[in-house]
TrEMBL record:
Residue spans crossing the bilayer: 6-24, 60-85, 106-131, 143-159
Organism of this sequence: Pseudidiomarina halophila
Official protein name in the record: DUF2165 domain-containing protein
Keywords for the protein's UniProt record, in alphabetical order: Membrane, Transmembrane, Transmembrane helix
Cross-referenced InterPro entries: DUF2165_transmembrane
Keyword Transmembrane helix: yes
Name of a matching Pfam family: DUF2165
Amino acid sequence: MTLRWIKVLLVLSMGVMCLFYALQNLANLEAAYYFVASVFTMADHEYYPNTFAFAVNNEILIQVSTWVIILLEMLAGLLFLFATWQLIQQRNAPAEIFQKAKSMTFIAAGVATLVWFGLFHAIGGAFFQMWQTPLGDSAFKGSFTYFASILLITFFVNLRED
């Protein structure tokens, strides 16, 4: 029973973390937009100044991308909160039922991983080379911490209790 409560609290923590990042981005929307713009325009790239593809200077695309990041962070947080509720409801259920109640946790983790690995690492890091600037490098490293923590916790939550 204690292990189940630990898992519930960890899923809750992931939800709160995702929501806090989304809310911080909303509270600092102009700064969030500036960050995305600096990554998309590939400003101040000294190490790899050329790209095989293109930089993005379209303000509408940058704004839409900023909102996609924030909304996906929010979605991940809300899904984790819903997953928490499902786990709480089944905390006293047999092991198989509790295991099935974890499914929303995996969906939430998938959305969160899409944000911090897919958007920040695959697109921001590999395509736009965001690691070349101090601002981009800080977010690049931070995003690894977020998605690695989420994956590690999700693997732990997935372990059977019986």
